[in-house]
């Protein structure tokens, strides 16, 4: 098929998982699948969980709606909606059982403090990355054969106990169901579209993957897609990276061109259709893959396929999937220019992750240099040891909430929850040192309780959701016969994240400046103003907002507090043992909790009103950075990335006028290199004109393609809530001033 055929298929590809049409003769609707799963959970309740889940997985593979369409290179799954996955009733049942049987008091505490906005915690199954190299080398049948060999070895040496037998039984049932489902796709394609050249090629591809490993670019893309769909949408464990695509697929691409198997135009079409699968699924937080890295000989992994992938993505102009680029001094300037030019034109679903910082962060945790060099980038920007480690995201700490607690003597005004940690009462605080000490008391309590709760509930990850398709790819899981997402990896890591760090610094600085340095009001007066949500104190609020003593402006006396808070957070968590034979790590990534926990936090001294968002990641409060991007980088890198080894992301907004032409590209490159040199880890950009955003808010129909980098993902500006749009508009106004 020529690449030009893609435009004829684009409408189908966009609608594939948004408004799907399935032949009802192929299976049953999700609602029926879920009812049957509920019944099976009860019928099979006396069997080990891996076996029960395997049987439920098998049932879905045999009975879900399917399609193989001449407008696409990839089959369609009826369980396409991640918010309505057919195995959800099973996992919800087991999660409820675990909470009731094993940690009821911890669960109550966690829910109370979640509601009060002290933290936001959940039992996480959203951050796995399979061993893609094993998937490519072995294929689905080879993964099954390898698991059988490990089982046979245990049978031979007498170590196949009941738990190990259940583990291997679950893997066997699950992978057999995958292979059986490939047969369903093949049979449907033959019976409905025999003779269509594209369908015949797809049948041949699926036949190969049913019997062996991928041999070419198309088959490799197909197995990535299939593993993702089977894992995330049926096995209910998120595949949080599609892998290092240029490194993994480069050899297939070069061989296909060299041997004349495909033309470059055909490979472009494969990639366009591949990327559109995730554009159609359209998960809010986007889906990642990464490019580049450093080879063992010191050269860059960037190759000809890297450029092709960027080019195809640029032509599609879609907000997801999202691309992470491993940045080092060896990254070709031409490739950087291509990526930066995409960003400044608004196709900005790109983040740069700096290898020097990754090395510093991971080696500080004890990883060997080679593991740091070859690490996967997963999720939004998080490094993880490739094929050796699972990393959960167990909870987010609200760094701003302690300020509100100090002003209210430990009581959350909205819920009445009392955080009793022995901090000084507001009436007994007479200096900024004492205020800061009280803040740290509450922060310590929040961090410690988040640790205690997560330590307890993470004991039961394999009970709630055995990770079968993930485990079968991980060699150490097979060797130990333990779940790879629980305690069966070499490194079993728990990440606790934070939100509001920048706003917390701003709030502390406002107390210091306006109460203790200037003496303009007392703490009691400030408390009353905050309880009234600044009503009647607008002039004071505006003066505080306009104060430059805020994080993000390159002011050492301010930034030292950001560095101190990050160091304290990391010091409390990093390398602390978890309940899965691994350790904890602190992270600077907020995800969307900067909005959610902001809604659960009252007015704060920095000028923020009740319910408004907080700062995200290691970035400043929206609109607080007014001294330029160089000062912003100075502030961010005042924090030691090794204190936040989970990840260390900075959001940068620039005006379009500053990035035009060759000089603009050079300026963006200079910023990247400066961030790299100062051990910044992840950095991404929004290039905005406030006037354009204001017009887009008034006339959304004129800006249907306008993209916004939210946190670690892109969305269309029109899809943001009005208050979120207003935050971007305000920051764009400030950078233009």
Description:
By secondary structure, the protein is of the alpha/beta class. It is built from 29 helices and 15 strands. A 5-stranded mixed β-sheet has the order 4-5-6-13-12. Strands 3-9-10-11 form a 4-stranded mixed β-sheet. Helix 2 runs antiparallel to helix 3. The chain is globular and about 80 Å long. The model has no long low-confidence stretch (mean pLDDT 95).
Offer a few descriptive terms.
737 residues, alpha/beta, 29 helices, globular
What does this entry show, briefly?
By secondary structure, the chain is an alpha/beta fold. It contains 29 helices and 15 strands.
Protein topology:
Blueprint: H1 6-15, H2 30-43, H3 49-63, E1 66-67, E2 76-77, H4 88-101, H5 104-116, E3 119-121, H6 132-157, H7 162-193, H8 197-211, H9 217-234, H10 245-258, H11 264-281, E4 288-292, H12 304-316, E5 322-327, H13 333-344, E6 350-354, H14 355-364, H15 369-373, E7 376-378, E8 382-384, E9 389-398, H16 401-407, H17 432-457, H18 461-464, H19 468-471, H20 475-480, E10 491-499, H21 501-517, H22 523-531, H23 538-546, H24 556-573, E11 583-587, H25 593-599, H26 629-636, E12 649-654, H27 661-677, E13 682-687, H28 690-698, E14 707-709, E15 714-716, H29 722-736
Helix pairs in contact: 1-11, 2-3, 2-4, 3-7, 5-17, 6-7, 7-8, 8-9, 9-11, 10-12, 11-12, 12-13, 13-27, 16-17, 21-24, 28-29
